[in-house]
Amino acid sequence: MDFSDVSLTALRVFHAVAEQGTFTAAAASLGYTQSAVSRQIAAIERAAGAELLERRREGVRLTAAGRVVMRRATVVIDEIDATARELSGLPEQSGTVRLGWFPSAGAVLVPRALAGLRRTDPGLRIVGREGSTPALVRALRAGSLDLALLASAPPFRPPDAESPPLALQTLTERALCLAVPATHPLARGDFVDVADLRGQRWIAGSSSGEDRLMGVWPGLDERPDIAHTARDWLAKLQLVAAGCGLTTVPALLASAAPSGVRVLPVRGGPQEQRRLLLARLPHPPTDPSIRVATALRAAALDADTPAPSSPPT
């Protein structure tokens, strides 16, 4: 089979598998069965005469040949999509930057940066999406994103082991904070002592996978009492406001806390630092990407944690 016989469908399926990280996730995103996805991947690998995806228990990873195909497939898919837009009479997407971010960055930082860009660069088009850090890294590698805001926790390892390493810029490094109901006894002071976290009820992340205990204070020396699980940050904070428990929050979210929630630092133990990273592939960035990166950096520096609100009377 000649590679010139590869269909656009096969390229799209391959692109989705590489970006989503698993055949199952790609099938769900495309509306295909998993067997249909497997057939398309088998066909494109036969045409390439090489294994393009390394199958692992936790998912797939691009091989060296796969990275070549992915780079070219991204160009082809983008050109086909641009042609479709032009034939439909839609405007050109010149000056477009594809930006990804992890959930809490979308609550404060991204809207601030985009609002600034609308004033300074009204012709610049940002196509954005939210995702977990692993998903965003895969999308960068797949060429589906130009820039991605990533979260990093100690020991601050690289976001993946692929080569060449991603170009990373640290925008901020701040201590993790605690969201406490305003009526809770811990809300009376200007900080929470880590010893007082024992015996508390927690609002954690999703009930399975790597995010299961997000929301529980790291290093808690007891089995946490998890009252509720919620993936969405707004839902977590509203549950805190309702007095249902405590949850951890990045310092960046302090200004987005709803009424009835105090966001406080934690003292008495190791500082739980979190970095906000801006990542891209290690090639010279385009001018639009530079402008977006500059706006994100300015928004991050401007989003200093406000002083804790006055304790309830």
Automatic annotation (TrEMBL):
Q: Which UniProt keywords apply?
A: DNA-binding, Transcription, Transcription regulation
**Gene3D superfamilies per the UniProt record, alphabetical:** Periplasmic binding protein-like II, Winged helix-like DNA-binding domain superfamily/Winged helix DNA-binding domain
Domain HTH lysR-type spans what residues?
Answer: 6-63
List, alphabetically, the Pfam families matched: HTH_1, LysR_substrate
Q: Name one GO cellular component term.
A: protein-DNA complex
User: What GO molecular functions are on record for this protein?
Assistant: DNA binding; DNA-binding transcription factor activity
The family this protein is said to belong to: Belongs to the LysR transcriptional regulatory family.
Supply the name of the protein.
Answer: LysR family transcriptional regulator
Source organism per entry reads: Streptomyces canus
